[in-house]
Amino acid sequence: MADYNSLGFAFVGLKTVQFATNDKAYRTTGALDLQTNIGFALDEANRILIVEVQFDFLKKKDAPFLKIGIQGHFEIDAKGWKQLSENSDNSIIFPQKLITHFVVLTIGAARGALHAKTEGTIYNTYILPTVNVAEVINHDVTFTSEGMVKEE
Questions:
Q1: What CATH number is given to the structural domain containing 46?
Q2: E-assigned strands of 109-151?
Q3: Which residues of 30-65 are buried (b: 16+ CB within 10 A; e: fewer)?
């Protein structure tokens, strides 16, 4: 398996895939619930791993009043890509530490995008909290030749 510290990569893209506010679901009182989703996709032709994070802020069950979804695009250099894909089953394995690093960068970008998109509104008081990504992503992420993500 590739050594996380020896891989060359670049943060080559950032895309807001979802942003919405819902005034009808917004409440000034009540408990706040924050739902977090993390997903991955692969663009093998361009050696790019796509990390997508989505955050839903809720004060009313099943009715988010604020949503944001961000993709971070990470290009792996040719040497690193070869290291990640040198597996007997032709899978591509991203080490847990590398995936964690990419998720942390993407969450940071989401935090900034949320601030920029809500600046000057009532929603600007809602800030993404810090996330211990190492507790959430505690395994390598494997992409098989069928394009399926298999978490180990």
A1: 3.10.420
A2: 141-143, 149-151
A3: eeeeeeeebebebeeeebbbbbbbbbbbbbeeeebb
Give the position of tokens 């970008």: 109
pLDDT tens track for 99-137: 999 999 999 999 999 999 999 999 999 999 998 998 999
Which domain covers residue 40, as residue numbers?
A: 7-151
| Residue 84: pLDDT band with limits 50, 70, 90 | very high
- The neighbour count for residue 141, using CB atoms within 10 Å, is 21
Contact by Cβ (8 Å): 94, 141 = yes
Residue entry with tokens 């792996």: 76
1/56: higher pLDDT: 56
Do the domain assignments include residue 79? yes
What lies within 8 Å, CB to CB, of 48 at 6+ separation is: 12, 13, 42, 73, 74, 75, 76
Task: Write the pLDDT tens digit of every residue in 30-57.
Answer: 899 999 999 999 999 999 999 999 999 9
Amino acid code (one letter) for 58 = L
H-run or E-run covering 80: helix 78-85
1, part of any domain = no
